[in-house]
Amino acid sequence: MYLINLQNLEDKKIFYLFIFSLVARIISIFVIGDTSLENEWSLLVNYLTEYGKLYSIFPALVNASWIEANFSVPNYENPLVPNVFMPPLYAYYLYLFKFLNLNNDLYILLILFSQAILSSISVIIFYKINKIFFSEKISMIGSIIFAFFPLHIYACGQISSVILQSFFLITFFHFFFKIAKTVRMFDICFLALISGLLILLRGEFIALFIFSILYLLILKVKIKNIFIILFFTFIVISPYVARNVILLDKVTITKSVGYNLWKGNNSLSTVEGNSYFDTNLGKKISKVPIDKYYDINVDKVFQNEAIKNIKNNPIHYLKLYIKKTLSFIFIDINSKYPNYYNPTHYLPILFIGVTSVIGIILSNKKSFLMNFLILFFLANIALVSFFFILPRYSLAILPLQVMFSNIFFTFIKNKFFKKL
Which of 223, 361, 370, 379 lies 20 to 30 Å from 304, alpha-carbon distance? Predict the structure, then answer.
């Protein structure tokens, strides 16, 4: 799938694009990359290292919010309870490198280098996908934009699951389109593997996976092959599902919908959410028993609070939802994140947001494959906007935005530069 023949001019260009992409990412890692594990990732990896188990960060998160809210809970400590708050895959990815027994600096560098390599490989796969829809020249332009997009390069140097998400998502699209054209068992198995990994990485992908399976039915992929995809996907996620069934009597991957919904829909919420809660909510949380069901029960408290907020003021939260949607596609005009309004960050995002929307308008509505990407894009935005939008989330939709922008670039080329 990824074999390159350097005697071929097109493959030579792809190879050089990969090399330059990787070099740009390595430079970025040394200049602005993370130097340690922080926040939730530090806690999760420490739990795996010290106890060999994935305990929850939810108690620590709640405790930090209590401190911020000046709400005191007597004798409260961060208990060790089973994790269902965070998807597990990236924590295990970070933990995997611990087996090399490296010092902290080398440990972090190796993680970031691995992300840089995955990101650079995704550029090659992205080019292959573009060739399905566009000319070699337009595909290369789009791939260069994707490869050297400032947010994409910056993210490689951060301890965050977003690079894995981007890599797996692009690979998912690659195999999806292969199956849509010609069904092979190899492609089915890889699509299932990537789907399972994405479910273990991002909780919301379950909904997008179901949508994609239904779309394969529209594309008249045989029911037998659909069942094979579902079966192998379940095989991939089954160890973690079995763990949750044994520990918690629940068939689930994560239980954080309530908290995320509340964070994005409370009286202080902005586009980026708000984790500060008042004394009344703190008292409700303090009554939750500290046992193995803690994550599940606390998440229910947050979910009930979020639903109550939305019911009490639906117009306000509808406006906030629309604002989150527009901020996801374009930019957040009221971001509190440091350096968000650095021109190298927000101008490319604004540009690709505008050109991608124009591309969607100009797209061939008779193309089932392009329609899938558009619907996937819209479904992703509609789903995530129920919660909150962080700046790094833009990378998850960037590949699609670049492809839609390629439609616009093709239009401009055919309209004004036909000889090129």
Answer: 379
Residue 74 CB coordination number (10 Å) = 5
Closest listed residue to residue 69, CA positions, set 285, 260, 270, 225 = 285
Q: CA distances (Å), 55 to each of 5, 80, 107, 242, in order?
A: 47, 6, 22, 16
Q: What is the pLDDT of residues 122-171, one digit of tens each?
A: 999 999 999 999 999 999 999 999 999 999 999 999 999 999 999 999 99
CA distance linking residue 241 with residue 258, whole number of Å: 20
Task: Quick: pLDDT tens for 243-255.
Answer: 999 999 999 999 9
Query: What is the spatial distance between Cα 55 and Cα 48, in angstroms, rounded to a whole number?
Result: 8
Residues facing 82 on adjacent strands: 55
Neighbouring C-beta atoms of residue 368, cutoff 10 Å: 13
Q: Is 248:296 a contact under the CB 8 Å cutoff?
A: yes
Residues 6+ apart with CB under 8 A from 284: 301, 305
Quick one: residue 53, left, alpha or beta (phi over 0 = left, psi -120 to 50 = alpha)? Answer: beta
The residues, any chain, with a CB within 8 Å of residue 15's CB and separated by 6 or more, are 4, 6
Core vs surface per residue 333-355: b (16+ CB within 10 A) or e? eebeeeeeeeeebbebbeebbeb
From the number of C-beta atoms within 10 Å of its C-beta (0-12, 13-18, 19+), residue 314 rates as: exposed
Structure tokens at 270: 């902005």
The structural domains of the chain, with segments of one domain joined by +, span 1-160, 163-252
Q: How many CA atoms lie within 13 A of 189 on its CB side?
A: 3
SS3 55: strand
